[in-house]
């Protein structure tokens, strides 16, 4: 399977476990806690698989970038976190960095 696709899916699962941390309420809620741990394990396994073919520095940066952008975006949508032009600008910088790493790794 394409390592970049594995990495993107790993990043989506990273978003899932990051958001799951909020819903698990410090791992005091059983079902959200289980879902969070499952998402974490799947995310790490897919990342581990992707780095068999991709440089670790690039893969890790892209993985955390996907997670950071997704968690920040869903934080605004799901939890009414503040949004500002500066915040959107900095999130855009992360996206630009992830795209740039993708282009420079091939």
UniProtKB/TrEMBL annotation:
Q: Which GO terms describe its molecular function?
A: transmembrane transporter activity
This protein's record includes keyword Transmembrane helix: yes
Q: How does it sit in the membrane?
A: Multi-pass membrane protein
Pfam families membership: Multi_Drug_Res
Q: Which GO terms describe its cellular component?
A: plasma membrane
- TM regions (residue ranges): 30-48, 60-79, 85-104
Keyword entries, A-Z: Cell membrane, Membrane, Transmembrane, Transmembrane helix, Transport
Which compartments does it reside in?
Cell membrane
Gene3D superfamilies in the record = 1.10.3730.20
Q: What is this protein called?
A: Small multidrug export protein
Species assigned in the record: Halococcus saccharolyticus DSM 5350
